[in-house]
UniProtKB/TrEMBL annotation, chain A:
Its EC number is 2.5.1.60. One of its GO terms (biological process) is prenylation. Belongs to the protein prenyltransferase subunit alpha family. It comes from Lentinula edodes (Shiitake mushroom). InterPro entries: Prenyl_trans_a. Transmembrane segments: none annotated. GO terms for molecular function: Rab geranylgeranyltransferase activity. It holds the Pfam family PPTA. Catalyzes the transfer of a geranyl-geranyl moiety from geranyl-geranyl pyrophosphate to cysteines occuring in specific C-terminal amino acid sequences. It comes from the Eukaryota. GO terms for cellular component: Rab-protein geranylgeranyltransferase complex. Keywords: Prenyltransferase, Repeat, Transferase. The keyword Transferase applies. This is Geranylgeranyl transferase type-2 subunit alpha.
Automatic annotation (TrEMBL), chain B:
Gene3D superfamilies: 1.50.10.20. It comes from Lentinula edodes. This is Geranylgeranyl transferase type-2 subunit beta. Residues 11-306 form the Prenyltransferase alpha-alpha toroid domain. One of its GO terms (cellular component) is Rab-protein geranylgeranyltransferase complex.
């Protein structure tokens, strides 16, 4: 239970509430017993589906009932429905979960059920080369991005919504360019510098844009430093921006110099100093920036370089052995 | 400690936990049935930490746990007739181990159930519907370890997924790409600790991030720029214990914060001062106090979140460090 204030109630008030709840309790138990009994009998009828709707409207945290509902749909109702009907049924479930999320935006089971609905959209409305067979899918996934934005407007830090947003972005039948996600994080950050969830998302999007070369890293980094400095000066007590700043500074100089030395080594393939320096700087990355790097790849690189070093510089092989054994 | 704050009201919390099972006429008791198995584990573990294990009837508890066994899947549901889920399955195993009743369990079947939930990527799903989360990876690792069956696990694959969830701030998210969150940091650290793979953790960066969870009022939050909450006391402290850095936290201030969230009339601990208590925050508040060396409490193992002496007897203790027990 989170954020529910403790109210001291008199014994009489508590008793009155209990009495008032008694009829609700009887109804709830009758409904829940009925649904669980149907579930045991593998009742996959429309009546059973309606009963689960009723129960989930009262208690959307009852995960067993979401499971049962999916079994009813898949085993009982979809097989006797047209694709249009299936599409309508899924839309009903999206409305049901939307209503539940408005009241319970942090209940895992509701998010899971939404994801399931979207993954079960039938192909259509187009068939046999006429129209778009992925039309329904496109419609619902695009709408989903809109829904998740509404929920992030209501609570810009809801990690369920952010997590779900990443699923939606990865699942869109026609994917959106990552630059548009970058723009989304800019909007979120500019409306509130404290929104670390948006800074986090931004770091992931930028890493991907930089590594694929779709965004010029040098120019883009300069813009990031401007954004960060603006945020720092706005509220220096806000830790979101400092954490992001640390990522931005990151391993920049090391990365740049390693790249320079690496290309020199391609020309001077036996250069001892290239190899020795690469081992040194790669170990700095490993030890000081462990969270930013691919540890196993860097370790492999170092082992390979040390092997070469023992060949080109055998006089100091004892030192290379020691680095490999004790300090990688 | 401020003079207005009560000490830990152990007898009151013990009776609070005892009374939880006696509210069968309350609507809320039935609306939370989907959490019952977890609630019993939280209650039992809190009682063990307060050295009052006997306050709940052992045989009745074991019979209840066994009544939640789902013969079809080989896992435990949260309540009789509720579907099996990895969350309630771990709680059931933890209760049976704590009550020295693991002989009642069909270990082969439950191991099969847990292993069936591992996905090709290495992460675990919560049930057959496939919601994935690093929480479930921890649960699988913890449960298999308690059952002495870690040998059946594909450790490389499990570790590899968790490692990919590590972010630049040193923390871990629920999935690849997700924001760091103290709860997810705990599950990932604990899974890696059990698997002896702390080398996947960037200790300096992560302990910096964890230390920054403490707010001026002494409480801990779960992510940057969020509100404090008693439940994070355990997740942050347990992670710091595994990294041997609990001393990074101002323990006097955190102890005061947790104590100030007690309900001094009805017993129990809430998410923050003045809120309604519940068994979840009662357990994690007391567990946090135990790791901080609060006098009169029993040691809790931060990796398994179970009595430390029991984990030691099972031969499963790892090299964590909590604060020394204060005399008063
Ligand atoms: Zn909490």
């Amino acid at each position: 239970m989170h954020g529910v204030r403790r109210a001291r109630q008199t014994q009489e008030a508590l008793e009155a509430k209990r009495l008032k709840d008694q009829s609700k309790l009887r109804d709830y138990l009758a409904l829940s017993d009925d649904v669980l009994a149907r579930k045991k009998q593998k009742d996959w009828s429309r009546e059973a589906l309606r009963a689960t709707t009723q129960l989930l409207q009262v208690n959307p945290e009852f995960y067993t009932i979401w499971n049962y509902r999916r079994h009813i749909l898949v085993n009982g109702i979809f097989p006797e429905s047209t694709p249009e009907q299936i599409q309508d049924l899924l839309k009903d479930d999206l409305s049901l979960t939307m209503a539940a999320l408005k009241i319970h935006p942090k209940v895992y089971w509701i998010w899971t059920h939404r994801g399931w609905c979207l993954n079960n959209v039938p192909s259509g409305p187009g068939v046999d080369g006429e129209g778009d067979p992925r039309g329904w899918e496109k419609e619902l996934w695009n709408q989903e991005l809109f829904v998740v934005e509404k929920l992030l407007d209501a609570d810009p830090r809801n990690f369920h919504a952010w997590s779900y947003r990443r699923v939606v972005l990865a699942s869109l039948p026609v994917s959106k360019p990552e630059t548009s996600e970058l723009a989304y994080t800019t909007r979120k950050i500019e409306s509130n510098f404290s929104n670390f969830s948006a800074w986090h998302q931004r770091s992931k999007v930028l890493s991907s844009l930089w590594s694929t070369g779709r965004l010029d890293q040098t120019k883009s980094k300069e813009e990031e430093f401007d954004l960060v400095q603006n945020a720092m000066y706005t509220d220096p007590r806000d830790q979101s921006v400092w954490i992001y700043h640390r990522w931005l500074i990151g391993s920049e100089i090391l990365d740049r110099e390693i790249a320079v030395i690496q290309s020199l080594l391609e020309e001077e393939t036996h250069s001892k100093w290239c190899m020795e320096s690469l081992v040194h700087y790669k170990r700095l990355l490993l030890h000081n920036h462990a969270a930013l790097v691919d540890k196993s790849a860097l370790t492999r690189d170092c082992i390979h370089l040390l092997e070469q070093l023992r060949k080109v510089d055998p006089g100091r092989r004892a030192r290379y052995d020691e680095i490999e054994i004790t300090r990688l | 400690m401020s003079h207005e704050t009560n000490p830990l009201l152990i007898p009151l919390h013990v009776s609070y936990i005892q009374n939880l099972g006696k509210n069968k006429n309350d609507l809320i008791y039935h609306l939370t049935a989907h959490l019952r198995m977890n609630a019993i584990y939280w209650g039992l573990t809190a009682l063990c930490t307060m050295n009052h294990r006997e306050a709940l009837d052992r045989d009745e508890m074991i019979d209840y746990v066994m009544s939640c066994w789902d013969e079809e899947t080989g896992g435990f549901g949260a309540h009789p007739d509720h579907d099996a889920h990895i969350l309630s399955t771990l709680s059931a195993i933890q209760i049976l181990v704590t009550q020295d009743a693991i002989g009642r369990l069909d270990i082969d079947r439950v191991v099969k159930f847990i292993l069936s939930l591992q996905q090709p990527s290495g992460v675990f799903a919560g049930d057959s519907f496939g919601e994935i989360d690093t929480r479930f990876s921890y649960i699988a690792v913890n449960a298999l370890s308690l059952l002495g069956r870690l040998g059946d696990l594909d450790v490389e694959k499990t570790v590899s997924y968790i490692a990919q969830c590590r972010n630049f701030d040193g923390g871990f998210g629920s999935r690849i790409g997700a924001e760091s969150h103290a709860g997810q940091v705990f599950v990932c650290c604990a899974a890696l600790t059990i698997l002896d793979r702390l080398d996947e953790i960037d200790t300096p960066t992560l302990s910096w991030w964890l230390a920054e969870r403490q707010l001026p009022n002494g409480g801990l939050n779960g992510r940057p720029e969020k509100l404090e909450d008693v439940c994070y006391s355990f997740w942050v402290l347990a992670s710091l214990s595994m990294l041997k850095k609990v001393h990074y936290i101002d323990s006097d201030k955190l102890i005061s914060f947790i104590l100030s969230a007690q309900d001094p009339e009805g017993g129990g601990i809430a998410d923050r001062p003045g809120d309604m208590p519940d068994v979840f925050h009662t357990h994690f508040g007391i567990a946090g106090l135990s790791l901080l060396g609060y006098p009169g409490l029993v040691d809790i193992d931060p990796v398994y979140c179970m009595p430390a002496a029991l984990i030691e007897t099972l031969g499963l203790r790892k090299g964590w460090q909590s604060l020394e027990r204060r005399m008063r």
